[in-house]
Amino acid sequence: MSKRVLVTGASGFVAGHVLAELRRHGYTVRGTARKPVGGLDDVVNADLSRDDGWAAAVEGCDYVLHVASPFPAHMPRTEDELIRPAVDGTLRVLRAAANAGVQRVVMTSSLLAVSSGHPNGPVRTEADWALLPRCTPYTRSKTLAELAAWDFAGQSGLDLVTLTPGIVLGPLSTPSVGTSVQVIRRLLNRAVPASPPMGFAVVDVRDLAAAHRLALETPAAGGNRYIVAGEHLWMRDVAAVLAEEFNPRGYRVPTGELPGWFARVVGWFDPSLRAAADHLGRHELVSSEKARRELGWTLRPARETILDTAYSLVELGLAPNPAEKKAAAAARA
Questions:
Q1: How far is 108 from 29, CA to CA, in rounded Å?
Q2: Taking burial as the number of CB atoms within 10 A of a residue's CB, which of 60, 114, 295, 328 is the most buried?
Q3: Could you tell me which of 206, 299, 189, 318 has the C-alpha nearest to residue 250?
């Protein structure tokens, strides 16, 4: 009999790839969502803000992958709008898992919980934690949720693994575009005149899905935290990759860079840039050596990830070719 895995937030970008990864490797998969999920028959309606439904969600499951945690496109009015749901929702899932006697919980945290607030400098590892007084509310929510999870695991004996991915890019399977993929979409659509001085460590969503499975399957992974992210890229580097591939085809990807002070001013009027303030000017140097060594994890080149993301946006009609649009308009005139 195959092992049964619960994946929270099954309708999300990361969770969709996790579900596919698990099915390819013979697992029986159940998801939590507030609406039907394509390709998944076993869906339980469970909301992180309420206790209802979680006992039923974990019943009969061998493992839980707690993936659900939205990245906001806009900053909340108060910190509690992010922090309390993140912490309380995580604890709801872990309590239900512990009560059901699941073998292991793998939780998706964030690289922000490792590196944020620190000055540019040495390579960060799993031993590092964000410096909360210097972080945005979103970063504090992710960090405090992970800390609460480790505290609960220590008190309950729950077998817990946490993954801290960098910015997640990769091919979309639906037209729903999360905040991270908007970076690529906005450059392709020339929605910004130039790149802000923003940098991040990238992970491909397909590699992140594999990391979840490996963390579930590796016996010695229990009680460990793993960084799953690759090389640091500035947004201007991402723009250069896109421009080389797409500008000869009629796109107009901007390759310049905004001054730091101007990017901060623009942030007052552009909520999506304000939401990413933790990344401005920060050189995110991290090591995923532990995941490679202990989980056998690998990741593909960043260029492949960037281009696969872009082509999926094009195929879904989310980044139409401006030259083709212009020609079509002229033909209709």
A1: 17
A2: 114
A3: 189
- Which residue is catalytic, options 3, 142, 290, 326? 142
How confident is the model over 122-153, as pLDDT tens digits?
899 999 999 999 888 888 999 999 999 999 99
Order of strands across the sheet that contains 167-169:
167-169, 199-204, 232-234
Q: What is the DSSP string of 259-315?
A: -HHHHHHHHTT-HHHHHTGGGBT----B--HHHHHHH------HHHHHHHHHHHHHH
Say whether 325 is catalytic.
no
Amino acid at 51: D
What is the mean predicted confidence (pLDDT) over 179-188?
Answer: 90
Would you give the end-to-end CA distance of the chain in angstroms? 63
State pLDDT tens for residues 90-102: 999 999 999 999 9
Q: What are phi and psi of 225, to 5 degrees?
A: -115, 135
Distance CA 172, CA 160 (A): 29
Separation between Cα atoms, residue 205 and residue 306, nearest integer Å: 11
Break the chain into its structural domains and give their ranges. Answer: 4-171+201-231+284-299
CA distance 198 to 73: 16
Kindly report the CATH class assigned to 4-171+201-231+284-299.
alpha beta
